[in-house]
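Dock manganese (II) ion; give full complex structure.
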Amino acid sequence: MSSGYFRQNHARYLEELEAFLRIPSISALSEHQPDIRRAAEFVEGQLRQAGLENVTLIEGGGNPLVYGDWLHAPEKPTLLFYGHYDVQPPDPLNEWISPPFEPTIRGENIYARGAADDKGLTLILIKAVEGVLAATGTLPVNVRFLIEGEEEMGGEHIERFAASGDARLKADACVICDTEMFAPELPTLCIGLRGIVYGEIVVRGARQDLHSGVYGGAAPNPLQAVAEIIAALKDRDGHIRIRGFYDRVRPPTPQEMRAWKNLPFDEQKYLREEIGSKDLCGSSGHSLFERIWALPTFEVHGIRGGFTGDGAKTVIPAQAVAKVSLRLVADQQPEEAVAQLSEAVKALAPQGIEAEYRHLHGASPSLVNPDNRFIRAAAEAMTEIFGKETVYVRSGGSIPIVGIFDQHLGIPSVMMGFGLPDDNLHAPNEKLYLPNFYRGIEAAARFLELAALQTG
Ligand code: BES
Ligand code: MN
Ligand code: MN
């Protein structure tokens, strides 16, 4: 199919993307439930407009899944397209140059929460299918869409649905646009993701808050305890000190390590432009890509407790809570990591302190075989549209559905990346590079044609 059809529709694609981005569908904040529904209904309308059939919201406790299909290509493969319509909270608000839910174009980028994660990229898949159907009256493969609204909060609706054995999940591969290109203009397929274990370390000391002068020296301090526990869980070299935690870690193959060495990458530029700290951290014996793609991590996301207002208050708080996560790599298992972390936290509680790990959500790590026929088709499509050889990378982030589909449906995921490393995912001033939006649509459309040629 020629690219003319798509070019003629750029203005409309952009308007629709803007309408999608104006909906503050923040899954983590319950006051945005009405926006979650509006976003689900927006996607529903998009799937209908694209010419999909059996379009419906799937309710089931939690935010609705949006489903649609087109199954009129007998003997051809069936692809299950996945994306998410929920977004991260936009805070800190004062760091946004333009408001997070008022999409604004500056240069060749569109700025808004969800632009790259994942509304823009989800729309790429919908517009590709819409375009091929509109221009040719048919599709070269069977497609299903399953767009969720709980990805950013680790929700379980989609996992329950995947485990239910619903016939609408029958597919040969899953296709996901929720990852990044390694560098601008460089077509990229992601073949590995880290898993995650996310929860809280809850620490209790005295029955109630106490005067720190009167009781200091006798009463245990939960904030001090939380600091000690966290410090004991990871050493200064970035090594996680939990018994047995590394036992299942599968090292990358020598071929993969060699391929990573050949990626166009400047570590100093990365430090300067993406991180902006004085230095990088992490295990000194491992390359950067091993550290962010092939090794697990332990991170602290926030610590709550005690007095944090202006001025001074002399108090020994009764309780402290730290939000923490572990990122996991193949072949680590979330359930086992939860057990190991719980055990470690309990054992590290200082005298007079009770400490426990309270689990919130988890996801398995994933590694897909790049020799898969659909991954080959995707690589070819991206190479054609971007005019460069497609590279294979992993990502340190997590997309729970990849592991879920692997475990429950036994299907591989093709992860075509159209975000860029500086898109500010989960951060202020999230953006999407518009040329990638338009070319992504063409690449996904070309992928449909090439996927149809794959047999066996
Ligand atoms: N799209 C991201 C994950 C991602 C980012 C993959 C960049 C590859 C490159 C996804 O929306 C995300 O943020 N996932 C969460 C998962 C979690 C809340 C279960 C994550 O990784 O923190
Ligand atoms: Mn995402
Ligand atoms: Mn995200």
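Observed: The longest helix spans residues 115-136.
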